Protein backbone atom coordinates (compact mmCIF):
# COMPACT_ATOMS: atom_id res chain seq x y z
CA UNK A 1 0.00 0.00 0.00
CA UNK A 2 1.50 3.33 -1.03
CA UNK A 3 1.54 6.46 1.16
CA UNK A 4 0.23 9.78 -0.16
CA UNK A 5 2.59 12.69 0.40
CA UNK A 6 1.67 16.22 1.40
CA UNK A 7 2.12 18.47 -1.60
CA UNK A 8 3.96 21.27 0.25
CA UNK A 9 6.73 19.52 2.18
CA UNK A 10 6.74 15.84 1.17
CA UNK A 11 5.63 14.63 4.64
CA UNK A 12 3.24 11.66 4.43
CA UNK A 13 -0.39 12.72 4.81
CA UNK A 14 -1.03 9.66 6.99
CA UNK A 15 1.28 11.11 9.64
CA UNK A 16 -0.70 14.36 9.61
CA UNK A 17 -3.88 12.40 10.32
CA UNK A 18 -2.21 10.57 13.19
CA UNK A 19 -0.89 13.80 14.74
CA UNK A 20 -4.26 15.52 14.33
CA UNK A 21 -6.09 12.65 16.03
CA UNK A 22 -3.61 12.64 18.92
CA UNK A 23 -3.95 16.42 19.36
CA UNK A 24 -7.75 16.19 19.51
CA UNK A 25 -7.56 13.44 22.14
CA UNK A 26 -5.20 15.51 24.28
CA UNK A 27 -7.39 18.59 23.98
CA UNK A 28 -10.48 16.63 24.97
CA UNK A 29 -8.70 15.18 27.99
CA UNK A 30 -7.45 18.60 29.03
CA UNK A 31 -10.91 20.08 28.80
CA UNK A 32 -12.30 17.30 30.98
CA UNK A 33 -9.57 17.88 33.55
CA UNK A 34 -10.36 21.60 33.76
CA UNK A 35 -13.75 21.03 35.42
CA UNK A 36 -13.54 23.22 38.51
CA UNK A 37 -16.96 22.27 39.84
CA UNK A 38 -17.74 20.65 43.20
CA UNK A 39 -16.13 17.27 44.01
CA UNK A 40 -17.98 14.12 42.94
CA UNK A 41 -18.90 13.10 46.49
CA UNK A 42 -20.74 16.27 47.44
CA UNK A 43 -24.06 18.07 47.26
CA UNK A 44 -24.17 21.63 45.99
CA UNK A 45 -26.62 24.31 45.00
CA UNK A 46 -27.88 27.78 45.87
CA UNK A 47 -29.77 28.99 48.93
CA UNK A 48 -32.09 31.95 48.49
CA UNK A 49 -34.34 34.00 50.76
CA UNK A 50 -38.00 34.38 49.87
CA UNK A 51 -38.87 38.02 49.05
CA UNK A 52 -41.84 37.67 51.42
CA UNK A 53 -39.60 37.40 54.49
CA UNK A 54 -39.01 40.47 56.59
CA UNK A 55 -35.77 42.39 56.77
CA UNK A 56 -35.23 40.79 60.18
CA UNK A 57 -34.62 37.46 58.44
CA UNK A 58 -31.87 39.04 56.37
CA UNK A 59 -30.17 40.26 59.53
CA UNK A 60 -30.23 36.85 61.23
CA UNK A 61 -26.62 36.00 61.98
CA UNK A 62 -26.34 32.20 61.78
CA UNK A 63 -27.08 29.88 58.84
CA UNK A 64 -27.16 26.09 59.20
CA UNK A 65 -27.05 23.88 56.10
CA UNK A 66 -28.13 20.37 57.07
CA UNK A 67 -28.28 17.06 55.20
CA UNK A 68 -31.22 15.19 56.76
CA UNK A 69 -31.35 11.40 56.39
CA UNK A 70 -34.87 10.84 57.73
CA UNK A 71 -37.18 11.41 60.70
CA UNK A 72 -35.59 10.56 64.03
CA UNK A 73 -32.13 10.12 62.53
CA UNK A 74 -29.13 12.37 63.11
CA UNK A 75 -28.07 14.57 60.18
CA UNK A 76 -25.44 13.18 57.83
CA UNK A 77 -23.58 16.50 57.56
CA UNK A 78 -23.88 20.09 58.82
CA UNK A 79 -22.33 23.43 57.98
CA UNK A 80 -22.66 26.41 60.33
CA UNK A 81 -21.99 29.79 58.74
CA UNK A 82 -21.96 33.35 60.02
CA UNK A 83 -23.13 36.51 58.23
CA UNK A 84 -23.95 34.94 54.86
CA UNK A 85 -25.02 37.04 51.89
CA UNK A 86 -27.83 35.67 49.73
CA UNK A 87 -28.08 34.07 47.26
CA UNK A 88 -25.45 31.75 48.75
CA UNK A 89 -23.78 28.97 46.75
CA UNK A 90 -23.00 26.04 49.03
CA UNK A 91 -21.08 22.77 48.83
CA UNK A 92 -21.29 20.01 51.47
CA UNK A 93 -18.75 17.17 51.43
CA UNK A 94 -17.67 14.33 53.70
CA UNK A 95 -15.56 16.89 55.59
CA UNK A 96 -18.84 18.26 56.99
CA UNK A 97 -20.04 14.90 58.35
CA UNK A 98 -21.36 14.81 61.91
CA UNK A 99 -19.76 11.46 62.73
CA UNK A 100 -16.66 10.14 61.01
CA UNK A 101 -16.74 6.51 59.95
CA UNK A 102 -20.23 6.65 58.43
CA UNK A 103 -20.45 6.33 54.63
CA UNK A 104 -21.10 9.62 52.85
CA UNK A 105 -23.82 8.17 50.64
CA UNK A 106 -27.54 7.56 50.29
CA UNK A 107 -30.60 9.79 49.94
CA UNK A 108 -30.79 13.08 51.83
CA UNK A 109 -32.80 16.28 51.95
CA UNK A 110 -31.08 19.64 52.16
CA UNK A 111 -32.42 21.93 54.88
CA UNK A 112 -31.33 25.54 55.35
CA UNK A 113 -32.03 27.24 58.69
CA UNK A 114 -31.50 30.87 59.67
CA UNK A 115 -31.25 30.65 63.44
CA UNK A 116 -31.77 33.64 65.70
CA UNK A 117 -29.84 32.37 68.73
CA UNK A 118 -27.21 30.31 66.89
CA UNK A 119 -28.36 27.02 68.44
CA UNK A 120 -29.93 24.44 66.12
CA UNK A 121 -32.92 23.48 68.25
CA UNK A 122 -36.62 23.41 67.29
CA UNK A 123 -37.91 25.99 64.79
CA UNK A 124 -39.18 28.90 66.91
CA UNK A 125 -40.19 32.51 66.43
CA UNK A 126 -37.24 34.38 64.96
CA UNK A 127 -35.99 31.35 62.99
CA UNK A 128 -36.51 30.80 59.25
CA UNK A 129 -36.20 27.59 57.27
CA UNK A 130 -36.49 25.95 53.85
CA UNK A 131 -36.00 22.47 52.34
CA UNK A 132 -35.48 21.05 48.89
CA UNK A 133 -38.70 19.38 47.66
CA UNK A 134 -37.53 15.75 47.42
CA UNK A 135 -34.64 13.54 48.57
CA UNK A 136 -31.53 13.56 46.38
CA UNK A 137 -28.46 11.33 46.16
CA UNK A 138 -24.94 12.29 47.16
CA UNK A 139 -23.33 13.76 44.06
CA UNK A 140 -26.36 15.86 43.12
CA UNK A 141 -25.75 19.40 41.91
CA UNK A 142 -28.02 22.43 41.57
CA UNK A 143 -29.98 21.38 44.66
CA UNK A 144 -31.53 24.76 45.39
CA UNK A 145 -33.28 25.70 48.63
CA UNK A 146 -35.68 28.59 49.22
CA UNK A 147 -35.91 29.80 52.82
CA UNK A 148 -39.58 30.76 53.10
CA UNK A 149 -40.98 29.36 56.38
CA UNK A 150 -40.93 31.47 59.54
CA UNK A 151 -41.03 29.81 62.95
CA UNK A 152 -44.11 30.58 65.05
CA UNK A 153 -43.53 28.64 68.27
CA UNK A 154 -42.46 30.50 71.37
CA UNK A 155 -38.77 30.10 72.22
CA UNK A 156 -38.23 27.87 75.26
CA UNK A 157 -37.91 29.79 78.47
CA UNK A 158 -34.76 29.42 80.42
CA UNK A 159 -35.34 27.69 83.71
CA UNK A 160 -34.84 29.89 86.73
CA UNK A 161 -32.15 28.84 89.08
CA UNK A 162 -33.52 27.69 92.41
CA UNK A 163 -32.78 29.94 95.32
CA UNK A 164 -29.65 28.96 97.14
CA UNK A 165 -30.27 27.47 100.59
CA UNK A 166 -29.12 29.58 103.52
CA UNK A 167 -25.51 29.04 104.34
CA UNK A 168 -24.68 27.34 107.57
CA UNK A 169 -21.66 28.46 109.49
CA UNK A 170 -18.72 26.22 108.83
CA UNK A 171 -15.04 26.07 109.37
CA UNK A 172 -13.04 28.59 107.35
CA UNK A 173 -11.80 27.29 104.02
CA UNK A 174 -8.69 28.34 102.13
CA UNK A 175 -9.20 30.91 99.35
CA UNK A 176 -10.15 29.40 95.99
CA UNK A 177 -7.56 29.28 93.26
CA UNK A 178 -7.99 31.62 90.35
CA UNK A 179 -9.30 29.70 87.31
CA UNK A 180 -6.91 29.19 84.42
CA UNK A 181 -9.60 30.06 81.87
CA UNK A 182 -11.21 33.48 81.95
CA UNK A 183 -14.61 32.50 80.49
CA UNK A 184 -16.45 30.43 77.89
CA UNK A 185 -14.70 31.91 74.87
CA UNK A 186 -11.30 32.39 73.26
CA UNK A 187 -10.20 35.72 71.84
CA UNK A 188 -7.15 37.16 70.17
CA UNK A 189 -5.72 38.55 66.95
CA UNK A 190 -5.11 37.05 63.51
CA UNK A 191 -2.20 38.46 61.51
CA UNK A 192 -0.87 37.83 58.01
CA UNK A 193 2.76 36.99 57.33
CA UNK A 194 4.27 39.88 55.31
CA UNK A 195 5.13 37.64 52.35
CA UNK A 196 1.43 36.66 52.00
CA UNK A 197 -0.09 40.11 52.53
CA UNK A 198 -0.84 40.83 48.85
CA UNK A 199 -2.37 37.41 48.22
CA UNK A 200 -4.41 37.54 51.43
CA UNK A 201 -6.05 40.82 50.38
CA UNK A 202 -7.67 38.98 47.44
CA UNK A 203 -9.18 36.12 49.49
CA UNK A 204 -12.76 36.98 50.54
CA UNK A 205 -13.52 34.56 53.40
CA UNK A 206 -11.89 33.85 56.77
CA UNK A 207 -12.75 30.75 58.80
CA UNK A 208 -11.79 30.47 62.47
CA UNK A 209 -11.98 26.80 63.45
CA UNK A 210 -11.74 25.21 66.88
CA UNK A 211 -11.12 21.45 67.10
CA UNK A 212 -10.83 19.22 70.14
CA UNK A 213 -7.93 16.86 70.72
CA UNK A 214 -10.07 13.96 69.42
CA UNK A 215 -10.64 13.32 65.69
CA UNK A 216 -13.98 14.37 64.24
CA UNK A 217 -15.80 17.46 62.97
CA UNK A 218 -14.87 20.92 64.28
CA UNK A 219 -16.18 21.88 67.70
CA UNK A 220 -16.89 25.48 66.66
CA UNK A 221 -16.54 27.58 63.50
CA UNK A 222 -16.76 31.30 62.76
CA UNK A 223 -17.01 32.52 59.16
CA UNK A 224 -16.11 36.14 58.38
CA UNK A 225 -16.59 37.80 54.99
CA UNK A 226 -14.01 40.32 53.74
CA UNK A 227 -11.91 40.54 56.92
CA UNK A 228 -9.36 43.28 57.51
CA UNK A 229 -6.07 42.45 59.17
CA UNK A 230 -4.95 42.41 61.88
CA UNK A 231 -8.34 40.90 62.76
CA UNK A 232 -9.62 40.69 66.34
CA UNK A 233 -11.57 37.47 66.84
CA UNK A 234 -13.72 35.76 69.44
CA UNK A 235 -14.95 32.17 69.24
CA UNK A 236 -17.33 30.85 71.88
CA UNK A 237 -20.17 28.48 72.72
CA UNK A 238 -22.39 30.46 70.32
CA UNK A 239 -20.31 29.06 67.47
CA UNK A 240 -20.53 25.35 68.42
CA UNK A 241 -21.39 23.17 65.41
CA UNK A 242 -23.28 20.35 67.14
CA UNK A 243 -26.02 21.22 69.64
CA UNK A 244 -25.32 19.78 73.07
CA UNK A 245 -21.53 19.90 72.86
CA UNK A 246 -19.85 22.14 75.41
CA UNK A 247 -17.19 24.68 74.55
CA UNK A 248 -14.67 23.73 77.19
CA UNK A 249 -11.28 22.16 77.77
CA UNK A 250 -8.39 22.73 75.37
CA UNK A 251 -8.74 23.15 71.61
CA UNK A 252 -6.66 23.70 68.50
CA UNK A 253 -7.40 27.01 66.76
CA UNK A 254 -6.89 27.39 63.00
CA UNK A 255 -7.35 30.52 60.89
CA UNK A 256 -8.10 29.71 57.25
CA UNK A 257 -8.33 32.21 54.40
CA UNK A 258 -10.48 30.34 51.92
CA UNK A 259 -10.62 31.19 48.23
CA UNK A 260 -13.93 29.42 47.44
CA UNK A 261 -15.69 30.10 50.75
CA UNK A 262 -16.21 26.42 51.64
CA UNK A 263 -14.47 25.06 54.72
CA UNK A 264 -13.47 21.72 53.24
CA UNK A 265 -9.96 20.54 52.63
CA UNK A 266 -7.48 23.28 51.66
CA UNK A 267 -7.11 23.87 47.93
CA UNK A 268 -4.64 25.99 45.93
CA UNK A 269 -5.22 29.63 46.78
CA UNK A 270 -6.09 28.98 50.45
CA UNK A 271 -3.89 30.20 53.30
CA UNK A 272 -3.71 29.01 56.87
CA UNK A 273 -2.20 29.61 60.28
CA UNK A 274 -2.52 27.91 63.65
CA UNK A 275 -2.25 28.90 67.26
CA UNK A 276 0.78 27.26 68.85
CA UNK A 277 -0.24 24.16 70.80
CA UNK A 278 -3.55 23.58 72.56
CA UNK A 279 -5.44 26.66 73.73
CA UNK A 280 -7.56 26.54 76.93
CA UNK A 281 -11.10 27.86 76.60
CA UNK A 282 -11.08 31.25 78.29
CA UNK A 283 -7.70 32.28 76.90
CA UNK A 284 -7.27 35.90 75.84
CA UNK A 285 -4.69 37.53 73.61
CA UNK A 286 -4.14 34.47 71.40
CA UNK A 287 -2.06 35.45 68.36
CA UNK A 288 -2.36 33.47 65.11
CA UNK A 289 -0.18 34.22 62.10
CA UNK A 290 -1.38 33.05 58.69
CA UNK A 291 1.92 31.92 57.21
CA UNK A 292 1.14 28.90 55.01
CA UNK A 293 -0.11 29.05 51.41
CA UNK A 294 -1.51 26.07 49.53
Which descriptors apply to this entry?
294 residues, 6-stranded antiparallel β-sheet, disordered N terminus, globular, 33% strand, single chain
- Average residue pLDDT: 80
Domain count: 2
Task: Return residue spans where pLDDT drops below 50 for at least 5 consecutive residues.
Answer: 1-8, 25-34, 173-182
Class from secondary-structure proportions: mainly beta
CATH topology of the largest domain: Immunoglobulin-like
- Give the H and E element order: HEHEEEEEEEEEHEEEEEEEE
Give the helix level as a range of percent.
under 10%
Reading off the top of the CATH hierarchy, the class of the largest domain is best stated as Mainly Beta
Total strands: the figure is: 18
Give the percentage of residues in beta strands: 25-35%
Overall shape: it is globular
The CATH architecture of the largest domain would be Sandwich
Distance between the termini: 56 Å
DSSP helical segment count: 3
Largest sheet: 6 strands, antiparallel
**Radius of gyration from the alpha-carbon trace, in angstroms:** 26 Å
Amino acid sequence: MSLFYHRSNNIPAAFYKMYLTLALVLLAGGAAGCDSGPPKESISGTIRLSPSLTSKARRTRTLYIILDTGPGRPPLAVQRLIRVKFPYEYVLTKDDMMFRGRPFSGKVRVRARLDSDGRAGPLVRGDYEGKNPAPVSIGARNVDVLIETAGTAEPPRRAKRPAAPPKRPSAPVPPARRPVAGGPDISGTIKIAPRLAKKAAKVPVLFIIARTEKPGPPLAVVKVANPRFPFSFTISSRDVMVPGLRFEGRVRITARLDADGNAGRPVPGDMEGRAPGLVPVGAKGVVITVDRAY
